[in-house]
Amino acid sequence: MSTPKRLSWPVPPPPTSIADLGLPFSFICDLLLKILYFNGNVLGRELSELACLPWPVISSGITFLTKENFCGTTGARAASKAHEEFAEGLEYVLTTSGRERARETLELSQYAGPAPVPLARLPQECHRVAGPERQPSAPE
Fold first, then answer.
1. Most exposed residue of 15, 42, 54, 113, measured as fewest CB within 10 angstroms of its CB?
2. Closest residue by Cα to residue 22 from 114, 115, 112, 111
């Protein structure tokens, strides 16, 4: 019996900076606050997975939130892997002011999932995924 062929779905290349996202820095910070709000204490690497963004992209947001006293760390809860930064193994938790800010942002939007692709970039991503042989055409 043959193994079923696995279909691969083309995905955009991972961003390497917040600028690559095409989203405001404040949006990323608010998204991280909401993810922490709904998930409680979270390791840096888990926060990265929940936001579907590489650690180098979200680390500046976490650094900002920590400096602004919206979140803090409870210490290292997991050994850093060879390719990881130390901060990825830290456990992050919201402060009282962080919970308040998260509630404020939740009044505007309850979305707390993977970082979205900006609407303005969606057509270019659709064209990239479709490939040159399957480009959409205008209706006649």
1. 113
2. 115
Q: How many domains does the chain have?
A: 1
In a domain, 8, yes or no: no
Closest C-alpha to 42, from 105, 102, 82, 110: 102
DSSP string, 21-73: HTS-HHHHHHHHHHHHHHH-SEEHHHHHHHHTS-HHHHHHHHHHHHHTTSEEE
For residues 85 and 116, give the distance between their C-alpha atoms in angstroms, rounded to a whole number: 25
pLDDT, one tens digit per residue, over 31-71 is 999 999 999 999 999 999 999 999 999 999 999 999 999 99
Structure token pair of residue 29: 């910070």
